[in-house]
Amino acid sequence: MQILKDRIRKDGKIREGNVLKVDSFLNHQMDVSLFREIGKEFKRRFEGEEITKILTIEASGIGIACVVAEVFNVPVVFAKKTQTKNIAGDVYTTQVESYTHGRIYDIIVSREFLGPDDKVLLIDDFMANGKAMEGLIQIVKDSGAQLVGAGIVIEKGFQPGGDALRDQGVHLESLAIVESMDEKTGEIVFR
């Protein structure tokens, strides 16, 4: 998706440790007009698929997932990273490791909002090692729902997450795959 790649090159900042900061438009301050284009592109890439729910993980995937869900005209469910009093009753839970935060989270989805009749599209802003996606896939399996695929805005192609999911047969669509990035020059190469 050229408009996204251009925006990453223009406003993305490469930090030590293979961190690509895109918080000025993607995951802190959100460019909703760009999100609309992202939603349309995911709709195009998953054309013909029956989707009843969008599933993401808190926090930075929620904004994108909401705009994508609007395009698909389906609800968004997001996995919470902490148990709250608002989630009562039975839940699906699994653990995920966050590359960005360097910690392990328990993620939780209420059984009330995901079940065997659902056809689920996973949406997230970033993928590095793919651990968040693996956790969401486990929740979909536990619920008995059908996994339609996964949509990632930015995939770090030099890390193993995307290839691992593709090897498992997941229909994965990444809108921008970063092949390499150089902290010293600021150069970003896309696949």
UniProtKB/TrEMBL annotation:
**CDD domains the record matches:** PRTases_typeI
Q: Give the highest taxon in the source lineage.
A: Bacteria
Using the record for this protein, list the coiled-coil segments as residue ranges, or answer none: none
Q: Which UniProt keywords apply?
A: Cytoplasm, Glycosyltransferase, Purine salvage, Transferase
Q: Which reactions are catalysed by this chain?
A: XMP + diphosphate = xanthine + 5-phospho-alpha-D-ribose 1-diphosphate
- Subcellular location, record wording: Cytoplasm
The residues that the entry says bind xanthine are: 20, 27, 156
Q: What's the short name of a Pfam family annotated to this entry? A: Pribosyltran
Q: Where is the Phosphoribosyltransferase domain?
A: 43-157
Q: What is its EC number?
A: 2.4.2.22
Work out whether the entry's keyword set contains Cytoplasm.
yes
Q: Where does the UniProt entry say this protein principally localizes?
A: cytoplasm
Q: Which GO terms describe its molecular function?
A: xanthine phosphoribosyltransferase activity
For this chain, the family text in UniProt reads: Belongs to the purine/pyrimidine phosphoribosyltransferase family. Xpt subfamily.
What is the stated purpose of this protein? Answer: Converts the preformed base xanthine, a product of nucleic acid breakdown, to xanthosine 5'-monophosphate (XMP), so it can be reused for RNA or DNA synthesis.
Q: Cite the record's note on assembly.
A: Homodimer.
- What PANTHER family does the annotation carry? HYPOXANTHINE/GUANINE PHOSPHORIBOSYLTRANSFERASE (PTHR43864), XANTHINE PHOSPHORIBOSYLTRANSFERASE (PTHR43864:SF1)
The name this protein carries in UniProt is Xanthine phosphoribosyltransferase
Supply the source organism for this entry.
Hominisplanchenecus faecis
Gene name in the database record: xpt
